[in-house]
Amino acid sequence: MNPLWMAVTRFGVLLGVTLRLKSFREGQLRERNEIRPHRIYSSHEASILLGVERAELVNLVTQKKIMGRMVNGNYRIPGSSLLSYLKHDEVA
């Protein structure tokens, strides 16, 4: 077999495994759907838990509807802030 095709095949397999693991992790977060108040979530994890796009979550943080802090170019959001946002959202 041509070495180029071997490399392409290996890359495809690696990419497939990576995407499946990512999908599995997101599914675990969605199924658990338990927000721990003392845990710090990344903006990606928080968006999955809230069921919104990451861009919308970042918009909520910049509007100060959800408390969060920028750390190394990514927002970190306390679970307590997510819970208070959900509680406020249910009332409205």
Descriptive notes:
The chain has 92 residues and is mainly alpha-helical. The protein is built from 4 helices and 3 strands, in the order H-E-H-H-E-E-H. A 3-stranded antiparallel beta sheet has the order 1-3-2.
Question: Which tags fit this structure?
Answer:
mainly alpha; 3-stranded antiparallel beta sheet; Multidrug-efflux Transporter Regulator, Chain: A, Domain 2; 2 domains; 92 residues
What is this structure, in a nutshell?
The chain is mainly alpha-helical and 92 residues long.
Given the C-alpha coordinates, what overall shape results? elongated
* CATH class membership of the largest domain: Mainly Alpha
Main structural class = mainly alpha
Tally of separate domains: 2
CATH topology name of the largest domain, in short, is: Multidrug-efflux Transporter Regulator, Chain: A, Domain 2
| Count of runs of 4 or more consecutive helical residues | 4
Average pLDDT score: 86
Q: Which assembly state applies to the chains in this document?
A: single chain
Distance between the termini: 63 Å
Rg (CA only): 18 Å
- Please name the CATH architecture of the largest domain: Orthogonal Bundle
Low-confidence stretches: none
**How many β-strand stretches?**
3
Largest sheet descriptor = 3 strands, antiparallel
Beta-strand portion reads 5-15%
**Helix fraction?**
55-70%
Please write the string of helix (H) and strand (E) elements.
HEHHEEH
